[in-house]
Amino acid sequence: MTMQLDHDQLHRLLDTLRDSDIQEFRLEGDDFRLEIRRNLPGQAVMAPVMQVAAAAPAPASAAEVSAGSPPPAAASSRSDLLEITAPMVGTFYRAPAPGEPPFAEVGSRIKVGQTVCILEAMKLMNELESEVSGEVVEILVDNGTPVEFGQVLMRVKPA
Predict the structure, then answer these.
(1) Strand, helix or coil at 33?
(2) Cα 34 to Cα 83: distance, rounded to the nearest angstrom
């Protein structure tokens, strides 16, 4: 069964969840994943699955747009590497919590669906999953650093 949500259905769902006591909610379809985790009433964020640079980037929502500087220019890109980019504005975290081991290190082998980092947006922690399998050859962002939509986070040599 294919799951699709139109704009009005999404708004009705978010309104219903906003008025409920539900603190965490996940809904997945063929081409989207909606995760809502909240600590304060009325906060919600849509966390798209990790995009690979070769794929068309998802459009930024109004909540994801900030009046900051453009993403830092990536260093010269090697054509044999795939780039994992930030699907939203947020703060980049390499590990699930302070003092815990990082999700991925340079030299780590990752697979499709594996969590590679967390992006915090509006006090919500969004786990980002890889859409590629291979070896992490570069991690371009320091832990705790703010990132922009589309900014390259990691480069992976495909398996």
Answers:
(1) strand
(2) 23
d(CA 90, CA 150): 11
Give residue 129's domain range. 48-158
Whether residue 56 is found in the same domain as residue 122: yes
Please give the span between the terminal C-alpha atoms of the chain, in angstroms, as a whole number: 31
Give the pLDDT of the chain (159 residues) as one tens digit per residue. Answer: 556 667 777 778 777 877 777 777 777 766 667 777 765 444 444 444 443 433 334 444 433 333 344 444 444 456 789 999 999 999 999 999 989 999 999 999 999 999 999 999 888 899 999 999 999 999 999 999 999 999 999 999 998
Number of domains in the chain: 2
Same domain, 100 and 57: yes
Q: What share of the chain is helix, strand, coil (3-state, %, to 5)?
A: 10, 30, 60
pTM for this prediction: 0.53
